[in-house]
Amino acid sequence: MSTEKKPEPTDYEFPQLWENYAQLLTQRQRMLQSAMAFYISSDVSVKALYDCEIKLGLPVIHHVPETQQGKIALSRFTSVCTNYTTILNRFKETYHF
């Protein structure tokens, strides 16, 4: 008889991880917005910031949460990703990259 514990749905969902990553994305978004708000000259540093953001990209999540907490966390994360993408595109248009 096996004593191995069967995984629970919450063992794979990590809602706190998504919430933490959403906070990181929010900070990255604020950095881009600050550059645009002060209309920092389009120079090497602004281009480097944009290139860095493109390289970092966004994670792709294939897992569909089963728990309510997981669904809420993923929904918030998806919303943050949408806002971040909008700001990144606006940044690209502002500086003509």
Rg over CA atoms, rounded to whole Å, is 18 Å
**Helix/strand order, N-terminal first:** HHH
Let me know the number of strands: 0
Gap from first CA to last CA = 62 Å
Strand portion, in percent? under 5%
User: Major sheet: size, sense and barrel closure?
Assistant: none
Total helix count?
3
Task: Please tag this protein with its features.
97 residues; mainly alpha; 3 helices; 66% helix; elongated
Secondary structure blueprint with pairings:
Elements: H1 15-37, H2 44-56, H3 68-95
Helix pairs in contact: 1-3, 2-3
Write up what this structure looks like.
The chain is an all-alpha fold and 97 residues long. The chain is 66% helix and 0% strand. The protein contains 3 helices and no strands. Helix 2 packs antiparallel against helix 3.
Structure summarized in a few sentences:
The protein contains 3 helices and no strands. The protein has 97 residues and is an all-alpha fold.
